[in-house]
Amino acid sequence: MADGTIRRGMRKGLTRYGDEGFSLFLRKAFIKAMGYSDDALSRPVVGIADTGSDYNACHASVPRLVEAVKRGVMLAGGLPMAFPTISLHESFAHPTSMFLRNLMAMDTEEMVRAQPMDAVVLIGGCDKTIPAQLMAAASADVPALVLPTGPMMTGHWRGERLGACTDCRRFWGMYRAGELGDDEIEDVNDRLAPTAGTCMVMGTASTMACMTEALGMMLPGGATIPAVHADRERFAERTGRRAVEIAAEDLRPSRILGADAFHNSLVTLQAIGGSTNALVHITAVAGRLGLEVDLEEFDAIGRRVPVLVDLKPSGDHYMEHLHDAGGLNAVLRELRPELRTGAPTVSGRTLGENIELGDRVPGQTVVRNASDPIHPSGGMAVLRGNLAPGGAVIKHSAASPGLLDHAGRAVVFDSLGDRDLILDLSNNRLTTLRPDIFSALDNLVWLDLAMNQLPTLPSGVFDGLTKLNSLYLEDNPGASFTFTMTIERVSGADKVVVVVAEGAPFDMTTTVSASGGALPDGVTTVTVPTGHTRSNEIAVTPLDGATVSLGLQPNVPADFDGIRTAVGGPVTF
Q1: pLDDT tens per residue, range 70-80
Q2: What are the structural domain ranges in the chain?
Q3: CA 125/CA 137 separation, integer angstroms
Q4: pTM of the prediction?
């Protein structure tokens, strides 16, 4: 303060009425309407960010956690004051929770600044909530501890253990493919999230909880306790007690969140096979303190530090198993050579001291050592190339081998609206193409053999089209053949279609037709014989205003079931 006096408790952050004494008098008059005594109002105040919401199943346990934190605060001689903030759940945030993360950060920061509190306990869980709260804590710089809601327990279906949300997309994919019926997918839906808490795989929520513990902004052991365990409430009580202590110590986030803390969090991120989203979030938290996350350094860490946690989606287990194996401390103990163990934490001890005091679980197999990792390098790698000049991140520890080595054309679009004009995702094919979209594609053409046709090319596209090359039809063994269609301008409006097929496993029929105008000979059809290289020419003269369609009909034998897709390009203008 300007007069050198440190304001605490109810005297902190007084509303400005021009008379400090009156401001305190008025504040106490109104808060006493809630039944508080002068003795209670003289205590250190610990704010509790209450993110409970009927829209947020990840935070369904927040009311119990608030009460447990209050109990710990009062046992330590403080006055707990819960206050609401924005609560975000991934499935209940339109248009996207990422859009609202910064709003939650601002809400939390301003409530911490505006209201009298000597310390704050931030109760978060679902993906964007803990990042938002860390951003707020870094900016407000009031002594703070993070209390995660904790992961949910696993469900079961037909003898298989289920984990949200890794299995959410897997089962939905099976349903889309016709492998599950309507009743079956509803049954799975009932069992994917059987308890309160965050996703029980190493998704963004669990990743951010682990990274927060590694940062030093959470008491040791808090990242992995399941949401429905009694230990979660006991941990909340300890957090409340410690909040009163850090208020007296004035242990602010600025004393915790230094370069060493962020280094430790990035090492942890690589070793747990964490979410790629977490790198975006931790960068935002560091940015609040004027620090930068160096992608090259992060990539180098990943080349040194392997994935040590056998947890989905990189491995086989779930968060409850990691907790039973010793929690994050078991991981940090294996990472000691890479960690900056002198980094301070909200426990009042260094990270290295916390590691030494942590439980050891003999015989556990969820956390590996560096000589027997789940993945030989870290969970993520930084990629650079012409598709992402500024860099991109891949979680290669969770990728199938086929995703790591692929050559193909890219469909580029400016927005989801443009995408929907280009792709029919329900049938995995290109839709009817607008001329401007077709030009912008540089021109990937997708042939869906189930539809037996190429996309319709509207009038105005055909007039400028000169070449369509290299359609590849793949069967199960991976054999392929090349089918080439070339459209060339001969003179004026005259066109010639040249058809070539090499190594085709069955006859191919090509058609050229027009609507809204006419072709001189109606519809022209050419059959390309099986297994031969053959060229055929068709003279085409569409009238003005005609929409010209190119069609490809594979004459597939009844016993041939290996057809997948065909990709074509480029189209040259």
Answers
A1: 999 999 999 99
A2: 1-33, 416-572
A3: 15
A4: 0.76
